[in-house]
Design goal:
This protein is of the alpha/beta class. The chain is 40% helix and 23% strand. The N and C termini lie far apart (115 Å).
């Protein structure tokens, strides 16, 4: 058995941890201890009566967390993801939201919905629809006035001048957000069925607090995304934010900007590729034609040579036949002093046995003929 390296083992374990959906968006309750700060980042340990785990709050998340809750000895509910460190063979929790213990209804509801939908199979990869490579039209379900839609427009138009963008202005936070998101997902599918086909649907919003992103953790929104016949890219918040929508969508994008980048192909690069391939194809065809012309010319030259040889052979045969005919021409024989004898019917008499005494016969010579009567017969064979 071939051994593996320590690095390979650690990388394998780290990948398994990162790919496990159960280790994303965890609601972990524990007591804070060993709190320290390094630059903009916070490091701590979460513990309960029998175990503990290391955790960190990165600077990008600290700005969105009520840090008054983060003190040694306090019990909290932390929304976090697993963060493996392959090089050191360790793992920790990356905390992106904190609530005081006992006030974690939102976190508990998140976990309840997540477990319920996962058990029903809504996260299963077999239901994930492929995102079209070359969409004709992309639908966007987000706020019509937020930064997210501007980022999406900017990215799509910067890299693609073919795909249309169809915007469904949506309330994405606060009262009415869930109904607005669900209704627009359904509306987009109806529009797509009724002649204005939509290839891909981006559902999401820019970053915000946990409360701002809450609508995308709603069960009804998750089910609407799952029921969508249009492939859905979920684009909620920032890279560190995970929502129920992310798990149920056909693809998760880290940000709305990333979703726009995923949704369309770069048509400018495509045109350059097409032009380059056209030139390569034209060059290849030209080379092929040149090579085929050489082959045809070679075959033509060979055919001409064969025909010339056959014509020469035929001419030689004709010349030989002419010589043979000339040599066997009766007139040539007559010119040597011989004569041809025919009876009155014109039949050539080749033997003395056909000569009858008293009969007249025509004697043909090279320059004329005359009639003679057989007077006597001399049989040379006797």
């Amino acid at each position: 058995m071939k051994p593996v390296t320590v690095s390979q083992v650690n990388e394998y374990i780290a990948k398994k941890l990162r790919d496990d959906l159960n280790l994303r968006g965890l609601a972990v309750e524990g007591e804070i201890s060993g709190l320290s700060r390094g630059g903009q980042h916070y490091y701590l340990t979460l513990k309960d009566a029998s175990s503990q785990i290391r955790a960190a709050i990165w600077g990008s998340n600290a700005a969105k967390i009520d840090m008054k809750l983060v003190e040694n000895g306090k019990k909290i509910v932390a929304i976090c993801d697993i963060s493996p460190y392959a090089k050191g063979g360790t793992y920790s929790l990356s905390i992106r939201y904190v609530e005081a213990a006992g006030e974690g209804d939102a976190a508990a509801e998140f976990e309840r919905i997540k477990r319920k939908l996962e058990q029903e199979g809504l996260f299963d990869k077999k239901y994930k629809k492929p995102i079209p490579v070359f969409p004709y039209r992309v639908g966007v379900i987000t706020s019509a006035t937020g930064a997210a839609i501007e980022d999406i427009r900017k990215i799509i138009t910067a890299k693609n001048d073919f795909t249309d963008i169809l915007i469904f202005p949506t309330v994405v936070q606060g009262i009415g957000a869930v109904n607005s998101i669900v209704e627009n997902i359904r509306k987009a599918n109806e529009v797509s069925k009724n002649g204005l086909h939509i290839d891909t649907l981006i559902v999401g919003r820019g970053g915000g607090s946990a409360e701002d992103l809450a609508a995308f953790n709603d069960e009804e929104v998750a089910r609407a995304i799952f029921a969508s016949e249009i492939p859905v890219i979920s684009a909620v918040g920032h890279e560190v934010d995970f929502s129920i929508s992310d798990f149920v969508a056909d693809m998760r994008a880290e940000t709305p900007t990333a979703a726009a980048d995923i949704a369309v192909m770069n048509t400018f690069e495509l045109r350059e590729d097409i032009q380059r391939n056209r030139k390569l194809m034209a060059s290849s065809i030209e080379q092929k034609i040149t090579a085929e012309r050489r082959v045809v010319q070679g075959c033509t030259d060979l055919l001409k040579a064969n025909l010339k040889a056959r014509i020469g052979e035929a001419r030689s045969a004709v010349d030989k036949a002419v010589i043979t005919l000339r040599e066997n021409d009766p007139r040539n024989i007559l010119s040597k002093g011989y004569a041809a004898v025919t009876d009155d019917s014109g039949e050539v008499i080749a033997t003395i046995k056909k000569i009858q005494p008293g009969n007249e016969y025509t004697i043909k010579m090279t320059d004329g003929s005359f009639v003679a009567k057989a007077v006597d017969i001399v049989d040379a064979s006797k």
